Amino acid sequence: MPTIVTFAEVRDGKVRRASLEAVSEARRLAGPLGATVQSVLIGQGVAPLAAEVASYGADRVHVFDDAELGSYATESFARALAQVITQEKPSVVLVPYTAMGKDVAPRVAARVGAGLVSDVVKLEVKDGKLEARRPVYAGKALATVRWEGEPQMATLRPNVFALGTPEASRPFETVTGTADVSTRRARVQSVQAAGAGKVELTEAQIIVSGGRGLKGPENFHLVEELANALGAAVGASRAVVDAGWVDHQMQVGQTGKTVSPTLYVAAGISGAIQHLAGMSSSKVIVAINKDADAPIFKVADYGIVGDVFEVLPKLSAAAKDLRSRH
Amino acid sequence: MKILVAVKQVPDTATQVKISGSDPRTIDTAGITWIVSPYDEFAVEEALRIKEKKGGEVVLVALGPDRVQSALRSGLAMGADSALHLKDPLFESVDTLGTAWALAAAIRPLAADLVLTGQQGVGGDNSQIPGLLAEILDVPQVTMAVKVEIGEGKATVEREIEGAHEVWETSLPAVISAQKGLNEPRYASLKGIMAAKKKTIETKDAASLGLKPEDLAPKTRVVGLELPASRPGVKMIPGDADAQVKELLRLLHEEAKVL
Known about the structure:
heterodimer, A: alpha/beta, Rossmann fold, 2 domains, 7-stranded parallel β-sheet, 5-stranded parallel β-sheet, 29% strand, elongated, B: alpha/beta, 9-stranded mixed β-sheet, two-stranded antiparallel ribbon, 7 helices, globular
């Protein structure tokens, strides 16, 4: 029976949502492929998380639970994942396209000789083989990609694949793996977490981004306040990142992050082509700009021609009010 | 200290992408301005800064058709010492893994202390070469670096990922990939541009790298390319700011159902 292997990333003691999306997608593909689903958990104290991973569709969970794996190191994690692939000979390997997935997947692919397709937004089974769709040029085009041979390895964009309904009573089997931690030539020395409650851009359901229309860094709090009111992550255009108003980590666009939230609010962003590339796959786009001819309105679903200094505070207040009622 | 920088030539980020009429799996390259992938420029800049501090040599390597030489020239004009151009009809259909094998075959005999490259090639956006290369070369990797400090046989690398700031330590040789925030790449000076004209770009084909066609056989293949579906069109919300805000929230809540 063919096998699908997924990598279940754990962060701060929790299985990340993107990992559960990967298991859910594996479960969906398992039907047409007639496959079983196996997931790999790596870390310290991760064994109790196997049940949650299984509830989304894993039939077997490989657990590498070791104090030496408490902090992420590319080489030991890659070895553990490659070990499962070598042993189980899966036809499909799915890894979330998170910072960790991005770091570890290529290493694993080279180790097991798998063709790897990055940042996939859709998977389909055609004649028993996978076909992937992925944005290229930051979403200015969509490529359809197929594999030659197996395993067919893919990293999946977070927030795109639907989460399945967990079934707590789903039977599963746990396999305890022993990781080779002998080679860790590169490793984390220290981690400084960002502010608590801060929502990560690529995983955010709602993003509020600000651009040059805010006129200066001292006004960027208007964007942050709306983000707070909506429980959203904060993004920015390249212009304001390059001007040093905000951290480059917040840049949305072709040389920043490509995002696909449910709701994207662009405030004072004109919509340069490289910005549009990074956000036009958002489900619903709201644009607020004083220039009615701004290109951002061409991709928006709802447009407000207006002054961000007037609209944003009113919107923040009203959004806070709406959220408190629902 | 010998530093290898793998660079990729990509279409300018302002490019309006069109599908090629002759091969619908590729983009129409007519009129495209080719640039060094912005992340690779950070890598070249970092290599030059390390060389300025520690001494040594910066060697560029790029894979692709003849036009790739202009990307190598721009890196040489910034101050790199020499460049390798990997060119072969066999490279035309390679995927990321094949590209990494070719780059690794070129880099391995040079015994570099450090391999720098961008975290992704803009356009393909695969973010694979750093990890593939590190595994094939059997060296450690630190990806998405925003700060690199070279010590004795090791490097301290800071990376910013998903809201966390991490400090890594790696032994050298290693592959380190650059992300935005690492540095501000310099502009080539006129003197640099003139000097670059005299620097050597050595060309190597698959055979001279010891690569056989089967090493380069692609494991993934693009079978189609299309432009994204156009968006449904905008609904402009009229009225003063109060009315606009009220109506927007109503639409987001009742029509789009996203709030």
